[in-house]
From TrEMBL:
UniProt-listed NCBIfam families: exoDNase_III, xth
UniProt-listed Pfam families: Exo_endo_phos
Family, as annotated: Belongs to the DNA repair enzymes AP/ExoA family.
PROSITE patterns listed in its UniProt record: AP_NUCLEASE_F1_4
A molecular function GO annotation: double-stranded DNA 3'-5' DNA exonuclease activity
Name of the protein in its database record: Unannotated protein
Cofactor entry: Mg(2+)
């Protein structure tokens, strides 16, 4: 059995103060992928040392700008290799992509934690988002080819900030022209999920609507389940065939939230 959990913590120090790291430890995953860590190496390690996740192996790619982005992967077992910064000028040194290789029982496994920023339609932010998605597309192809050569598998986890279909966003009509539900963004997911990658949150999560993974802090969206499904665990077909469950850990009440995202956990046999 292998349990992989992904969550945008919306700042790991704030999440810890709200009980988030205790929640993650209680979930007992084997691998934890984090996005929007928003911490330096020193701050992240100090926060983990003060939590039930003390002692886990940490691969961390912080953003150059303090208090922005940042991704990490926590593993119980020591990774065989960590790649924090790649040669790609977009993926590398952006605090939005980190990958590790693990020696799993069934063979080599590459785990990726990725954060795709929100974007904003018809602005430079959206141009930058498309540039990142293009770089991500290139890297996904390379990882897929590498896995095929080595006989390994790949799982990519993170906040893509894109709702794929109408069933993945409560107010899809009102968001047709907004970043996160633009046709051009969704076409990347169409391409990835057509043959090469399996969207486990959907294949194991039912026909929808939902299950959503993000709700605004503002208004009553959380209470009325007016959310978006923008957090993903996608896997190569061989690994996806071993997936048994995908569970969104939505907080029981608004007061018990420790992030605006809910964790998504996928279990593999």
């Amino acid at each position: 059995m292998l349990s992989v959990l992904t969550v945008n913590v919306n700042g790991i120090r704030a999440a810890h103060r709200r009980g988030g790291l205790a929640w993650l430890a209680d979930a007992k995953p084997d691998v934890i992928c984090l996005q929007e860590v928003r911490a330096t190496h020193e701050q992240l390690h100090a926060t983990l040392a003060d939590s039930p996740l003390q002692g886990w192996n940490v691969a961390h790619a912080p953003a150059p700008q303090l208090g922005r982005a940042g991704v990490a992967i926590l593993t119980r077992k020591q990774p065989a290799e960590v790649r924090e910064v790649m040669k790609d000028p977009v993926l590398g040194n952006s605090g939005r992509w980190v990958e590790v290789d693990l020696d799993a029982k069934q063979g080599p496994l590459t785990v990726v934690s990725v954060y795709v920023h929100t974007g904003e339609a018809e602005t430079q932010k959206q141009v930058d988002k498309y540039a990142f998605l293009e770089a991500m597309d290139t890297r996904l192809k390379a990882l897929r080819a590498r896995a095929t050569r080595s006989g390994g598998e790949v799982v990519v986890c993170g906040d893509f900030n894109i709702a794929h279909h109408e069933i993945d966003i409560k107010n899809w009509r009102g968001n047709r022209g907004n970043a996160g539900f633009l046709v051009e963004e969704r076409e990347y997911l169409d391409r990835w999920f057509a043959k090469q990658w399996v969207d486990l949150g959907r294949t194991l999560g039912g026909d929808g609507p939902g299950p959503y993974t993000w709700w605004s802090w503002r208004g009553r969206g959380f209470d009325t389940d007016g959310g978006w499904r923008i957090d993903y665990v996608i896997a190569t077909p061989g690994l996806a065939a071993r997936a048994t469950t995908a569970v969104v850990g939505k907080a029981p009440t608004y007061a018990e939230r420790w992030s605006d995202h809910a964790p998504l956990t996928v279990t593999f046999k």
